[in-house]
Amino acid sequence: MKTCYDFTVIGGGIVGTATAWQLQQAHPGASILLLEKEAALACHQTGHNSGVIHAGVYYTPGSLKADFCRRGALATMAFCDDNAIPYQQPGKLLVATTEIELQRMQALQQRCADNDIECHYLDQSALRRREPHIRGLAALDIPQSGIVDYRLVTANLARHFVDGGGELALNCEVIAAEEYPDRVELDCTHRGGSKRRIESSMVIACGGLMADRLCRMLGIATDFAIIPFRGEYYRLASAHNQLVKHMIYPIPDPAMPFLGVHLTPMIDGTITVGPNAVLGWKREGYGALNINLTDTLATLGYGGFWKMAAQHWRSAAQEMKDSFYQPGYLKRVQKYCPELTGADLKAYPAGIRAQAVMHDGSLAEDFLFAHSARTLQVCNAPSPAATSALPIGAYIVDQVQTKLTALG
Fold first, then answer.
1. Cβ atoms within 10 Å of 291's Cβ, excluding its own
2. How far is C-alpha 266 from the geometric centre of its chain's CA atoms?
């Protein structure tokens, strides 16, 4: 079994897989290894999201998020076209239901202009004609928004990577790492107990929920910790699969870090409802048992968590209440779709968002990277990371080239 590589990428989500493939394109003939601790790719954030190809409405002009998302939406759809991956562009409607939301909607309309995103204003009657089951005072129509199965996108990226000579190692978890002047050594364990030591000239870590732990493992000083937020979804009863034609989003509160509960027609024809955003006590807690002692102690022992909690405790309490009390969750949907009832909400898998929280309690809003001489760490890659995976990978390839030049 080969043990020495030019590049090793840790993490088989869509960002890690896109990075490995683009490294291969930039360095033909290089030996490249993609490590994933699970038995399949895209098992975590990539495979537990809404499947939305975001247009980039919400993001600060000039930020990496705004740039990567706008370019990523086009790149994602082009990749799907080239690989016969089904996707749709139903568009997204941002629906204002109160006067304060109308004011916020004006700011979003200006942000669309600033980010060069096509956007159309719909008054109340136009909204009703477009979506008869949706109620609101007005809406913004974002036609560039789409939906896709990101697991399928990731599988096709991996296929190209392997066909090009890359090596994919599943069930292979990094448990220790050490950087030396001429190499990085990774100690890995395979399911079943066997161990493997890997030497690599350069390591790129796209660890998602484990990003902070990988940084510490490699001795990289950081000022953040990953706090998991659990997003709970429902799906609508199949009788409602034709309820809406567009994705229906509320107007977000700019004081809150997440976008609110929305209706999303999925690529398989179903419609999901969600997500909310409650604190996760387990970094990979998708099932009913959402607690892990190690993860819980890590969160509670981090000072930045308590500073964040002091700032957002009211919204956190509301999210937690609605998590346990379905009528509260339902009320958030009925705000713009009043005909839905509790019986219409069916069980659907949850997702976990890896949110980098800084020591001062602030949430890292943009993509965040950390470096050492021979490693590059993707520290914060929240939504729209799936949409933005190809531009993120290209950015990482450029950073790697800068490192190689500096190393001589």
1. 10
2. 16
CA distance 357 to 363: 5
278 and 320 Cβ atoms separated by less than 8 Å: yes
pLDDT of 259: 73
Structure tokens at 292: 């892990």
Q: Tokens 């929240």 appear where?
A: 382
Q: How far apart are CA 272 and CA 249, in angstroms?
A: 12
Pairing of strands 183-190, 195-205: antiparallel
* The pLDDT of residue 383: 87
Task: Measure the CA dihedral 29/396/76/365, to 10°.
Answer: 170
Domains in the chain (CATH in brackets) are 1-88+144-223+365-408 (3.50.50.60)
Strands 345-347 and 234-236: antiparallel
Q: Pick the closest to residue 199 from 175, 219, 178, 220 (CA basis).
A: 178
Token pair belonging to 354: 């890896």
Report yes or no on whether pTM surpasses 0.85. yes
| Per-residue pLDDT at 142 | 97
Q: Quick check: 196 and 175 in contact, CB under 8 A?
A: no
260: left (phi over 0), alpha (psi -120 to 50) or beta: left
Q: What is the DSSP string of 309-359?
A: HHHHHHHHHHHHHHHH-HHHHHHHHHTT-TT--GGGEEE---EEEEEEEET
Residue partners of 99: CB distance under 8 A and separation at least 6: 137
pLDDT digits (tens, 9 = 90+) for 88-132: 999 999 999 999 999 999 999 999 999 999 999 999 999 999 999
The residues near 110 (Cβ < 8 Å, ≥ 6 apart) are none
pLDDT at position 260 is 84
Q: Is 132 exposed, middle or buried (0-12, 13-18, 19+ CB in 10 A)?
A: exposed
For residue 172, list its beta bridge partners: 190
Q: Are 307 and 361 in contact (CB under 8 A)?
A: yes
Residues in the chain: 408
Q: Which helix (H) or strand (E) holds 380?
A: strand 375-380
